[in-house]
Amino acid sequence: MKSAFAALTSCFDQALLAALDIDGTELAPLVVPSSNPKFGDFQSNVAMALAKRLKMNPQKIAEHIVDKLDVNEFCEAPQVVRPGFINLRLKKSYLERQLQSMSQSERLGVAIPENRQQVIVDYPSPNIAK
Fold first, then answer.
1. How many Å apart are CA 58 and CA 70, to the nearest integer?
2. Are 21 and 77 in contact (CB under 8 A)?
3. N or C: which end of the chain has fewer CB within 10 A?
C-alpha cells in the first residue's frame, strides 16, 4: 500500500518532467502536508522555488504543472493559489479505501522493517535537589 504522500511526490516528479523538463528529485520537498486544513491536505510551493530559475511567473509555472499533474485517482482537482501554491485535497473515497485496507491488515498496514533492531530509550528525570 503506497502512502498518499509517496504517490503525490511521484506524480509531481512526472508532472515536472512533462511540463518543464525538470527532474523533481533535485527539488525536495515537492509536496508537504498543509499547514492549515482549510487549504487542503497537502500543498506544494515548487513553482515559487522554480520562478527565479526559469524567469517565469510562479502562478504560470504552477498552472503548467497542474495541467500535467495526474492525481485524479486519489485527489480532488488541484487548486493553484497566488503567488504559486498548489493545494491538494484527498478524496473521501480514497481515504475510505485506505482505511478499509488497513482494517483488514493484522498490523493495520504498518510493515515490519527488514533490518529490525532493538533500541533502548531511557527517560531520565532531572534531580531538582542538586
1. 20
2. no
3. C
φ, ψ for residue 70, nearest 5 deg: -110, 90
| 79-124 per-position pLDDT tens digit | 999 999 999 999 999 999 999 988 998 888 888 888 888 889 988 8
Instruction: Tell me the sheet residues that pair with 79.
Output: 87
Inform me whether the pLDDT recorded for 23 exceeds 90.
Answer: no
Could you tell me how many residues make up the chain? 130
CA distances for 64 relative to 8, 76, 96, angstroms: 16, 17, 30
**In terms of pTM, does the model score above 0.90?**
no
d(CA 99, CA 103): 6
Q: CA-to-CA distance for 125 and 18, rounded, in angstroms?
A: 55
Name 90's bridge partners.
75
**Residue from 8, 43, 49 nearest 27 by CA:** 49
Q: Quick check: 119 and 70 in contact, CB under 8 A? A: no
Q: First and final CA of the chain: distance in angstroms? A: 52
